[in-house]
Amino acid sequence: MARILAVADEVVEQLWTDRVFQYADVDLIVAAGDLPFDYLEHLADALDKPLVFVPGNHDLDLSGYSNVRGLWTKAGVPVRWPGPAGAVNADERVVDVAGLRIAGLGGSIRYNKGPNQWTERQQARRARRVSRLAGWRRLRDGRGVDVLLTHSPPLDCGDEPDAPHRGFECLRGLVSRLQPSFMLHGHIHPHGHPRPDRALGTTRVINVVPQKVLDISGGRDET
Protein backbone atom coordinates (compact mmCIF):
# COMPACT_ATOMS: atom_id res chain seq x y z
CA MET A 1 0.00 0.00 0.00
CA ALA A 2 1.40 3.39 -1.02
CA ARG A 3 0.14 6.73 0.25
CA ILE A 4 0.30 9.44 -2.38
CA LEU A 5 -0.16 13.19 -2.39
CA ALA A 6 -1.79 14.10 -5.70
CA VAL A 7 -1.80 17.74 -6.84
CA ALA A 8 -2.87 19.66 -9.93
CA ASP A 9 -3.66 23.09 -11.38
CA GLU A 10 -3.98 25.20 -8.23
CA VAL A 11 -1.19 26.08 -5.81
CA VAL A 12 -2.14 25.44 -2.18
CA GLU A 13 -0.55 28.37 -0.38
CA GLN A 14 -0.31 26.53 2.96
CA LEU A 15 1.99 23.98 1.37
CA TRP A 16 4.63 26.71 0.96
CA THR A 17 4.77 26.80 4.79
CA ASP A 18 5.60 24.29 7.52
CA ARG A 19 2.09 22.89 7.08
CA VAL A 20 3.50 20.84 4.20
CA PHE A 21 4.87 18.46 6.84
CA GLN A 22 1.36 17.22 7.60
CA TYR A 23 2.01 15.08 4.51
CA ALA A 24 5.33 13.71 5.75
CA ASP A 25 3.88 10.18 5.77
CA VAL A 26 3.24 10.02 2.02
CA ASP A 27 5.37 7.71 -0.11
CA LEU A 28 5.02 9.57 -3.40
CA ILE A 29 3.90 12.87 -4.93
CA VAL A 30 2.06 12.81 -8.25
CA ALA A 31 1.20 15.95 -10.19
CA ALA A 32 -1.42 16.07 -12.93
CA GLY A 33 -0.21 19.25 -14.62
CA ASP A 34 -0.44 23.04 -14.72
CA LEU A 35 1.53 23.75 -11.55
CA PRO A 36 4.69 25.88 -11.27
CA PHE A 37 7.74 23.67 -11.44
CA ASP A 38 9.31 25.41 -8.44
CA TYR A 39 6.21 24.51 -6.41
CA LEU A 40 6.62 20.85 -7.37
CA GLU A 41 10.32 20.98 -6.52
CA HIS A 42 9.45 22.49 -3.14
CA LEU A 43 7.01 19.68 -2.34
CA ALA A 44 9.49 16.99 -3.33
CA ASP A 45 12.36 18.62 -1.41
CA ALA A 46 10.35 19.40 1.73
CA LEU A 47 8.84 15.92 1.97
CA ASP A 48 11.93 14.18 0.56
CA LYS A 49 9.75 11.95 -1.61
CA PRO A 50 9.83 11.01 -5.31
CA LEU A 51 7.73 13.08 -7.71
CA VAL A 52 5.98 11.81 -10.85
CA PHE A 53 4.18 14.27 -13.11
CA VAL A 54 2.57 14.82 -16.49
CA PRO A 55 2.50 18.26 -18.14
CA GLY A 56 -0.65 20.31 -18.52
CA ASN A 57 -1.64 22.67 -21.29
CA HIS A 58 -0.16 25.66 -19.42
CA ASP A 59 3.19 23.97 -18.82
CA LEU A 60 6.33 24.21 -20.92
CA ASP A 61 6.81 21.88 -23.86
CA LEU A 62 9.05 19.14 -22.45
CA SER A 63 9.06 16.89 -25.50
CA GLY A 64 12.31 15.86 -27.16
CA TYR A 65 14.50 15.81 -24.04
CA SER A 66 16.56 12.73 -23.19
CA ASN A 67 18.48 11.83 -20.05
CA VAL A 68 21.37 9.41 -20.29
CA ARG A 69 23.37 8.88 -17.09
CA GLY A 70 22.35 12.26 -15.75
CA LEU A 71 23.12 14.24 -18.92
CA TRP A 72 20.15 16.00 -20.52
CA THR A 73 20.17 16.43 -24.29
CA LYS A 74 17.80 17.64 -26.96
CA ALA A 75 18.47 16.83 -30.61
CA GLY A 76 21.80 15.46 -29.46
CA VAL A 77 22.91 18.73 -27.87
CA PRO A 78 23.53 19.01 -24.09
CA VAL A 79 20.89 21.25 -22.53
CA ARG A 80 19.48 22.21 -19.16
CA TRP A 81 16.33 20.28 -18.27
CA PRO A 82 13.55 22.88 -17.92
CA GLY A 83 11.23 20.62 -15.93
CA PRO A 84 11.13 20.13 -12.15
CA ALA A 85 14.53 18.95 -10.91
CA GLY A 86 14.67 15.28 -9.98
CA ALA A 87 11.10 14.57 -11.08
CA VAL A 88 9.96 11.74 -13.37
CA ASN A 89 8.03 12.91 -16.42
CA ALA A 90 5.53 10.09 -17.04
CA ASP A 91 4.03 11.63 -20.19
CA GLU A 92 3.56 8.86 -22.77
CA ARG A 93 5.45 6.47 -20.49
CA VAL A 94 4.92 3.68 -17.97
CA VAL A 95 7.04 4.03 -14.82
CA ASP A 96 7.48 2.09 -11.58
CA VAL A 97 7.86 4.34 -8.52
CA ALA A 98 7.24 3.70 -4.80
CA GLY A 99 5.77 0.27 -5.52
CA LEU A 100 3.22 1.60 -8.02
CA ARG A 101 3.07 1.18 -11.77
CA ILE A 102 1.98 4.48 -13.27
CA ALA A 103 1.02 5.16 -16.89
CA GLY A 104 1.00 8.82 -17.90
CA LEU A 105 -0.57 10.97 -20.59
CA GLY A 106 -0.38 14.74 -20.30
CA GLY A 107 -1.96 17.59 -22.20
CA SER A 108 -5.43 18.80 -23.09
CA ILE A 109 -7.63 18.90 -26.15
CA ARG A 110 -6.31 21.35 -28.74
CA TYR A 111 -8.07 24.72 -28.53
CA ASN A 112 -5.30 27.14 -29.57
CA LYS A 113 -1.63 26.99 -30.55
CA GLY A 114 -0.25 26.54 -27.04
CA PRO A 115 2.00 23.66 -25.93
CA ASN A 116 0.84 20.25 -24.71
CA GLN A 117 -2.41 20.38 -26.68
CA TRP A 118 -3.56 17.52 -28.88
CA THR A 119 -6.32 16.71 -31.29
CA GLU A 120 -8.35 13.63 -30.46
CA ARG A 121 -6.49 11.71 -33.18
CA GLN A 122 -3.07 12.78 -31.89
CA GLN A 123 -3.90 11.86 -28.30
CA ALA A 124 -5.34 8.52 -29.43
CA ARG A 125 -2.01 7.74 -31.10
CA ARG A 126 -0.16 8.65 -27.91
CA ALA A 127 -2.59 6.54 -25.88
CA ARG A 128 -1.92 3.52 -28.07
CA ARG A 129 1.79 3.89 -27.37
CA VAL A 130 1.13 3.92 -23.62
CA SER A 131 -1.07 0.86 -24.01
CA ARG A 132 1.70 -0.99 -25.87
CA LEU A 133 4.29 -0.07 -23.25
CA ALA A 134 2.00 -1.29 -20.46
CA GLY A 135 1.38 -4.51 -22.38
CA TRP A 136 5.10 -5.19 -22.78
CA ARG A 137 5.65 -4.62 -19.06
CA ARG A 138 2.77 -6.94 -18.22
CA LEU A 139 4.17 -9.69 -20.44
CA ARG A 140 7.55 -9.32 -18.74
CA ASP A 141 6.48 -9.40 -15.10
CA GLY A 142 2.72 -10.01 -14.95
CA ARG A 143 1.98 -6.66 -13.37
CA GLY A 144 -0.77 -4.35 -14.50
CA VAL A 145 -1.02 -0.57 -14.22
CA ASP A 146 -2.07 0.71 -10.81
CA VAL A 147 -2.57 4.39 -11.71
CA LEU A 148 -3.32 6.20 -14.96
CA LEU A 149 -2.11 9.78 -14.47
CA THR A 150 -3.45 12.33 -16.96
CA HIS A 151 -3.99 16.05 -17.16
CA SER A 152 -7.39 15.91 -18.85
CA PRO A 153 -10.34 13.70 -17.90
CA PRO A 154 -12.08 11.31 -20.28
CA LEU A 155 -14.89 12.65 -22.44
CA ASP A 156 -18.17 12.91 -20.51
CA CYS A 157 -16.51 11.77 -17.30
CA GLY A 158 -15.86 14.85 -15.19
CA ASP A 159 -15.04 17.22 -18.07
CA GLU A 160 -16.80 20.47 -19.06
CA PRO A 161 -18.73 21.40 -22.21
CA ASP A 162 -16.54 24.37 -23.21
CA ALA A 163 -13.90 23.65 -25.85
CA PRO A 164 -10.74 23.99 -23.68
CA HIS A 165 -12.10 21.65 -21.00
CA ARG A 166 -13.59 18.90 -23.11
CA GLY A 167 -12.16 15.49 -22.28
CA PHE A 168 -10.64 12.89 -24.58
CA GLU A 169 -12.71 10.01 -25.91
CA CYS A 170 -9.52 7.95 -26.32
CA LEU A 171 -8.96 7.98 -22.56
CA ARG A 172 -12.05 5.84 -22.15
CA GLY A 173 -10.49 3.23 -24.39
CA LEU A 174 -7.18 3.48 -22.56
CA VAL A 175 -8.87 2.90 -19.22
CA SER A 176 -10.69 -0.09 -20.68
CA ARG A 177 -7.43 -1.61 -21.92
CA LEU A 178 -5.28 -0.89 -18.86
CA GLN A 179 -7.97 -1.29 -16.19
CA PRO A 180 -6.02 0.66 -13.56
CA SER A 181 -7.38 0.86 -10.05
CA PHE A 182 -7.27 4.66 -10.22
CA MET A 183 -7.27 7.34 -12.90
CA LEU A 184 -6.09 10.69 -11.54
CA HIS A 185 -6.56 13.89 -13.54
CA GLY A 186 -6.53 17.66 -13.22
CA HIS A 187 -7.55 20.41 -15.69
CA ILE A 188 -11.09 20.86 -14.32
CA HIS A 189 -11.17 23.48 -11.57
CA PRO A 190 -13.78 22.88 -8.85
CA HIS A 191 -14.55 26.62 -8.40
CA GLY A 192 -15.94 25.88 -4.95
CA HIS A 193 -18.14 22.98 -6.04
CA PRO A 194 -17.19 19.44 -5.00
CA ARG A 195 -16.24 17.20 -7.90
CA PRO A 196 -17.48 13.69 -7.16
CA ASP A 197 -15.39 10.68 -8.02
CA ARG A 198 -16.58 8.73 -11.03
CA ALA A 199 -16.14 5.21 -12.31
CA LEU A 200 -15.23 3.70 -15.65
CA GLY A 201 -15.72 -0.01 -15.16
CA THR A 202 -13.67 -0.91 -12.12
CA THR A 203 -11.49 2.21 -12.37
CA ARG A 204 -12.08 5.06 -9.92
CA VAL A 205 -11.70 8.39 -11.73
CA ILE A 206 -10.63 11.24 -9.44
CA ASN A 207 -10.23 14.95 -10.07
CA VAL A 208 -7.27 15.81 -7.80
CA VAL A 209 -7.44 19.63 -8.11
CA PRO A 210 -5.95 21.13 -5.99
CA GLN A 211 -4.84 18.17 -3.83
CA LYS A 212 -5.87 14.71 -2.64
CA VAL A 213 -4.25 12.12 -0.40
CA LEU A 214 -4.92 8.54 -1.47
CA ASP A 215 -3.90 5.09 -0.35
CA ILE A 216 -3.33 2.83 -3.35
CA SER A 217 -2.38 -0.84 -3.41
CA GLY A 218 0.51 -1.51 -5.78
CA GLY A 219 1.88 -4.52 -7.57
CA ARG A 220 -1.34 -5.84 -9.10
CA ASP A 221 -0.65 -9.30 -10.48
CA GLU A 222 -2.52 -10.01 -13.71
CA THR A 223 -1.11 -13.46 -14.41
TrEMBL record:
<dbReference type="InterPro" id="IPR029052">
    <property type="entry name" value="Metallo-depent_PP-like"/>
</dbReference>
<feature type="domain" description="Calcineurin-like phosphoesterase">
    <location>
        <begin position="19"/>
        <end position="190"/>
    </location>
</feature>
<protein>
    <submittedName>
        <fullName>Metallophosphoesterase</fullName>
    </submittedName>
</protein>
<dbReference type="Pfam" id="PF00149">
    <property type="entry name" value="Metallophos"/>
</dbReference>
<dbReference type="InterPro" id="IPR051693">
    <property type="entry name" value="UPF0046_metallophosphoest"/>
</dbReference>
<dbReference type="InterPro" id="IPR004843">
    <property type="entry name" value="Calcineurin-like_PHP"/>
</dbReference>
